[in-house]
Specification:
This protein is an all-alpha fold. The protein has a domain of about 80 residues. It is about 70% helix and about 0% strand. Strands 1-2 form a two-stranded antiparallel sheet.
Length: about 250
């Protein structure tokens, strides 16, 4: 890749799509140095170029989180913070950029990240909230930063809820050991006819809540509502085994 990038005519770098794809490839290959050098030398940066770098930093953060040694509780990584620094440089972020910012805050799970989430969420154009991915990522970040109250208020004010949003709030209820609220939200989702055929998280949250409650007959009746396609999933089967033996 390095060889090819050096042979590309300089004029081609005025094409933001080309530069974005090259930055994305470099970051995915773990070549932060060349990606940063290329990014910094670019005179025409659009949201896509910023997005490629931000996503690269977030992905690298997650990789390092998995392989780094933890010393006195400190994880040696500042990639998520770099993504946030880039966000602060963008004058007119689009919805994808906001999603990347929320993902970065979700990884940091700090008070500083929470304060940024609250501030930025008030500045997000209202039209962007019609994007369920954006609202889901914001709710997820708030829950991971331990502000379920604010996440609930945003969730309740949303007129277009999908199963992803329900799953995030259910996760928050389980996190705070409030399984009855999880069940209430699951039942609300069913009453509202929300499609859940692609959302494994909802059913994992349901099973965890039932495990916390420990009511055998209730568990039986609720488990019957899980589609057969999910019952063959390894995560669901493991969660069910844990629930029945606990």
């Amino acid at each position: 890749m390095k060889k090819v990038s050096k042979d590309i005519p300089k004029s081609f770098y005025s094409n933001p799509r080309l530069l974005t794809s090259l930055l994305d490839a470099l970051m995915k290959c773990g070549d932060i140095t060349d990606a940063e050098s290329l990014f910094n030398s670019s005179t025409k940066k659009d949201p896509g170029i910023y997005g490629a770098m931000m996503k690269g930093y977030i992905d690298l953060f997650m990789y390092e989180l998995g392989v780094s040694f933890i010393v006195l509780g400190y994880i040696k990584s500042n990639q998520a913070n770099k993504a946030i620094d880039l966000f602060n440089e963008i004058k007119n972020p689009n919805d994808v950029i906001f999603i990347l910012l929320f993902n970065a805050c979700a990884q940091l799970r700090s008070n500083e990240a929470l304060n940024l989430l609250k501030k930025v969420s008030k500045d997000v154009p209202k039209s962007f909230f019609s994007n369920p991915r954006l609202l889901t990522s914001l709710l997820d970040a708030l829950v991971k930063c331990d502000d379920l109250t604010y996440a609930e208020s945003l969730f309740n004010s949303s007129t277009k809820k999908d199963s992803g949003m329900y799953g995030v709030i259910m996760t928050g209820y389980n996190k705070e050991n409030n399984p009855l609220k999880t069940l209430d939200l699951f039942n609300q989702m069913k009453r509202n006819g929300i499609e859940d055929k692609d959302n494994l998280i909802v059913y994992l949250c349901l099973i965890k809540a039932l495990s916390q409650i420990g009511d055998y007959s209730l568990s039986e009746s609720m488990i019957e509502q899980i589609p057969n396609d999910f019952l063959i999933d390894n995560q669901i089967q493991t969660a069910l085994i844990d629930m029945w033996v606990s």
